[in-house]
Amino acid sequence: MGGKQINIIIAEPSAVIAAGLAAVLANYNSFKVLEQVTDLKFLPDAVSRYSPDIVIANPALFDYKSKFPLRTVFPDGESPLLVAFTSVFYDEAFLSQFDAVMSVYDSPASIAKHLRSIVENVRAGGKRKPGDNYDLSEREKEILVAVAKGKTNKEIADEFNISVYTVISHRKNITQKTGIKSIAGLTVYAMLNNMLDSSEL
């Protein structure tokens, strides 16, 4: 990416959460938050004015039951990456419209790394959707191994002292990064990447 700045708009109804995310991103020189909007109706104008690289949006701003593609909210000719910033569970089909999914429970370092990864991939001419070019975080590797061992979301949450929603968020990120949805497929992936030994199954 050559150190090029990543310009971001945050679309989040909670001013407290938006300010917290902006503060996290301000700690990394590669990110610049251009604007924070609290309502979807303000987003098209902000995108038109700034042409950001990424829009980080709370999925709650969108009508998840609606059939319209989420990107229709962007002005013609504008196509920033759309990243979901979640705190609760959403339907997988709905979240699949986003280029990436992050959780409010993710660490600042994980959020920064994830955002850099998706932008670097697109700038390098890759697909918009995350693929297996992305490195799994250490926590995602731990979650993947636990899933491969057949543990439930509740069991994983208890083991790592995190919420079930956080486990679900990690699992979505793992699926997006690896492109693998089945537990059997994730088990094979874990074994091929030396995260898991067959004796542990």
UniProtKB/TrEMBL annotation:
Query: Which residues are in the HTH luxR-type domain?
Result: 129-194
Q: Which GO terms describe its biological process?
A: regulation of DNA-templated transcription
Q: Which domain of life is it from?
A: Bacteria
UniProt keyword Cytoplasm present: no
Q: Which SMART domains match?
A: HTH_LUXR
Q: Which InterPro entries match?
A: Sig_transdc_resp-reg_C-effctor, Tscrpt_reg_LuxR_C, WH-like_DNA-bd_sf
The GO molecular function terms of this record are: DNA binding
Q: Which UniProt keywords apply?
A: DNA-binding, Transcription, Transcription regulation
* Protein name, UniProt field: Response regulator transcription factor
**Which species expresses this protein natively?**
Candidatus Merdivivens pullistercoris
